[in-house]
Records
---
Amino acid sequence: MRNPRKTKADLVYEALQAAILSGNLKEGEHLRQEEIAARWGVSQTPVREAFRRLESEGLVEHAPNRGVIVRGLPWTPPPAPLDVIRRRWEELVRDPESIPGSDFP
């Protein structure tokens, strides 16, 4: 089965979503419909549709008289696995008794 062709709204939505999730668009930044439409070479209709999708995900909000504003990530990304291992190792070195069922000296 072939993948359905992406619409212009899909492309704008995916680009904006990726920019927000990667941090390229910062919390509190204003998104101007006309600028985004010009940048992507689309009309304002696909941009409005992309804004609605992003708003439903909580990534942007429409503020009356201010336009669309980036809300940022609605969650904090988990720490990198090596950071977790490093912290746990430090805990174990400080308190070997924290290892259940271990005879660790």
---
Amino acid sequence: MSLFKKFFSKEKKETLDKGLEKSSSSFLNKLSKAIVGKSKVDDEVLDDLEEILIASDVGVDTTLKIVERIEKRVAQDKYFGTDELNKILREEITTLLIESEKGGNIDSVDSLPKPYVIMVVGVNGVGKTTTIGKLAAQFKKEGKSVVLGAGDTFRAAAIDQLQIWADRVGVTLIRQNMGSDPASVAYDTVQSAVKQNADVVIIDTAGRLHNKVNLMNELSKIKRVMQKIKPDLPNEVLLVLDGSTGQNAFEQAKQFTKATEVTALAITKLDGTAKGGVVIGISDQFQIPVKYIGVGEGIDDLQMFDKVEFVDSFFK
């Protein structure tokens, strides 16, 4: 199930192909060089594959898992050739992504009481504000009413940027002065949404990681205060990660999953990097569903993550 209607148009597929072009060409070029002149998948090819996957930011643990699966298939089929490697890799990576979804839950907004509250977390600079703006625009396009909460009260720029998005999209923004209590902003936002009978609430939070204890306390407080209005809030905690940072994104995911219960991931800026493999690794390692990926600067270039289409574009 998803917050948006499940529909993968030709235009979206073209955008996805283009957005993953750097990752795809980098990966496939390396793979082609590794198997040139070889007809059989042997230990040398598997070692090369391991290096290529790690270099593509899939991550060591996930890479070892993928290579182990390939090894098993090679052992079962002694005629396994290099010409089949591409196809088998696609299958194993798709299976891995499907398995990782079991670790999380993506609910439909229509099946839950209104408002559906999304708390957005992530360090500064990952594209958090832009992701919130694009989500608001897409919900609005779906005919849903949206209220935004400017909970990152430590940066005036974050509040102002969110105001620009709210004005652009035509949705309500609840804000207070810089330095205000983020939990107070969250409370006001949810309360306003309840009064308006709004469908969706998206609340921004501060992106500081220098003190994990403070971060944990702050996010816990925001949750507790919202739960005074409705005990099951937030419905979703969305962690935004910058895909172009590769292994850094793994570290951020590690810190935030320790600080709060993350239920879904958004991985941004994949169009400007060859590190698209990070989507595979993070999805597998944290067993949290990747819900959205950013593959361009346009409002519609924040896409619902489709595992099969992603792998297809990655192997274009």
---
Amino acid sequence: MSRKLRWGVMGCANIAIGSVIPGIQQSARGEVVAIASRDESKARETAGKLGIAKSYGSYEALLEDDSVDAVYIPLPNHLHKEWTIRAAEAGKHVLCEKPFSIDAGEAKEMTAACSRAGVHLAEAFMYRHHPRYNKIQEIIASGELGDLRGIHGAFTFNSSANTGNFRFNQAMGGGALYDIGVYPISAARLVTGSEPEAATVHAFFSEHHDGVDMMASGLLEFPGGIALTFDCGMWAASRNTLEILGTDGRIEVPSAYVCDPNSPSVFYVTVRGHRREVKFPPMNHYSLQADDFAAVVLDEAAPAFGQQDSVWNMRVLDACLESARTRSRVVIPH
């Protein structure tokens, strides 16, 4: 059996405990060997519950562990840059939770540090590793939908009552665009294979949540007259969808960004009035993400998404935030 990539987890965030750690543990090529928290008792308790051999009371101690090949960073957004760079300098490969950073400038520093250290760096957009997105790209490329005309993405949920969450803290990189707007933005870039030229975004900044954007609706202008319209929110009813529209047909993706690993996943293709279902068996996209990461590190496979992709996504997010704050159309530099 091929060697497994040995992971350390930097923090006991809900996304780590509920999704990413179980995903790595269920993957073919990964194992979680250590977890760290600034609260040593919390790290020890989490390690015991999840069957992780080692726990540490500091992130520095985790980075000093020679048995750790790669780290997963689910820390609050404002800490991504610091700990990605420190992990790289310690010789660890890095899977960094989205949003990759606070802005494109930070993203460039992170990618440069990892390139200097010769370590693999990836952003934790797990949905992109599910084979349904390869199939969606194949359908678009085949011309079955005709010419691409537009994309609409929606990702909303209501967690507004939890006012102590870092997502509602400006200094920590809170807000709906950072937290979930990045999903439809990255998905549109993925399916079009191009970069948007301008952004126009309107947002609801809540005085009850440290002034962060609790809801945002936007338009991204892609080359060729193609547009992404999207909305994202943390104070709205739940939605998690993507629609891709062509001149002859369309694709509808329910559970577009987060899907149940224990249930089949589907999307629907409608061409000239005829609708069909494209179905995939249950699979864990967090496990697929871990296996793709391990293939790059252990087998020297080419990454599906290069480090520069995260810089480009942050560049778009920068424009969206500027547009929302200034209530103006913002041209995205290339």
